Amino acid sequence: MTDSIYDQLNAYGTVAKQRVVENFSGSAFDTDRWENGFGANCTPTMGYNGTEGVSFVTNGTSNAIYMAGFDNKCQYNPQGFRYISTCKKNNDDLGIRSGIGDTDSAAASGHLAMMSEGSFVSSRALTTNNGGSYVDTFATTGGGTVPLSQTEFMFDIVGTPSSITLTFDGALQITKTTALPTSKCQPLMYTQDRGTPAVKSWRTIYMECYNT
Amino acid sequence: MAYKQHFIEWFSGKQLPSYLTFTDVNGTNTGAMADEVDGGYKITTGASNNNSATISFNDKRPFNHEGAVAIWVQKGSRLTTSTIFSGFGGDDTLNINWSMGGIHAGGSSTHFSLYTKDTSTASATASSVALDTDYHAIQVEMKSASNELSIEGSLQTTKSNNLPTIDVQPLHFAQTWSGGAITANMKYLECYNT
């Protein structure tokens, strides 16, 4: 077997496209890579005492928010990308979105493709925007809607010129062909405290994004 | 078999990670993550003749000059009067002891080449791949008696003279010889000892 990771990830003779792999492991959230572009009263905290990955923890203030991005360095093609990550929340009144978008501000992001969980939506959804408004699309295949839950899950967003799909734990749930983003994007992870303010959190232990 | 040193960098995020160091070799130049699809990290040289810069490990040299591989994906903006190459080097100002591949049009090469330098003398061997401004996957393997250059997985050049004599670090280098500023993008870098 080759010693090269490059050769394991790319077919022989090909030139690799942009990729990032984030393991969320270390003494502190990587602020060389990530920037909080939108929000306050929510802190990314690395896992300890058996808690894995990074947790985005609100401080009990109403509407505490956090949006981690690449400071609008947009290297990913929304019409040819894949975004793989995990999510686990500890409170149902917490809004979560994770995926790619063109702006690291939920107030301004015009082009995006993100998995939505928590109280932003009534069941897990693929949220997209192509310069207009957010459009939530809920599962219509693979057994109907996917309920919100506090169980850890993996999700996988794949974008092509004609569709974006969302897979949960290996099962394809959503294929969407409208409101597809077209502007170059960056990875984004968004948190918002909703309902009665309290200390709430969600965590992720892995994020990988690459152009296809 | 014991595990050996292995490094991988994706060049994707807000800024260059702190374990990589940007160095002005000559003049004032800039480096930043590119806000471009597949842009990686981009060095932009100053406009004056010979302005140049590197990114490196700040002269921490964990890679064996007689047994290491570097693989990277780079592109350069200009094929004349410029040098845009990467691989391994002994120091971050590119004085001596390097083994690098890429564009060295300032030296009149019209093809991607393998350039090496020992403690005093530099020399180049050209590949069969003509220069262009597209991204290429380039590999340098340092062995005990030779260095090899591969492009897109195909072995191009084997060189046995003027090889580095000390251990090395990863380097990405851009220099304008004349004709204004150039850019050099790097979107992947992997190095390991063999």
Walk me through what this model shows.
The complex is a heterodimer of chains A (212) and B (194). Chain A is mostly beta strands and 212 residues long. Chain A has one domain: Jelly Rolls. Chain A is built from one helix and 16 strands. Chain A has one helix at residues 5-9, and strands at residues 19-22, 35-36, 42-46, 54-58, 65-69, 81-89, 94-101, 111-118, 125-130, 135-138, 153-159, 164-168, 171-176, 186-193, 201-204, 207-211. The longest helix of chain A is centred in the N-terminal third of the chain and has 5 residues, at 5-9. The radius of gyration of chain A is 17 Å and the shape is globular. Chain B has 194 residues and is mainly beta. Chain B has one domain (6-193): Jelly Rolls. Helix content of chain B is 0%, strand content 52%. Chain B contains no helices and 15 strands. In chain B, the strands form two sheets. In chain B, strands 1, 3, 4, 6, 11, 12, 13 and 15 form an eight-stranded antiparallel beta sheet that branches. Chain B has a seven-stranded antiparallel beta sheet with strand order 2-5-14-7-8-9-10, with no helix packed on it. In chain B, a hairpin with a 7-residue loop joins β3 and β4 (41-44). Chain B is globular, with a radius of gyration of 15 Å. The termini of chain B are close together. The chains are: A mainly beta (212), B mainly beta (194).
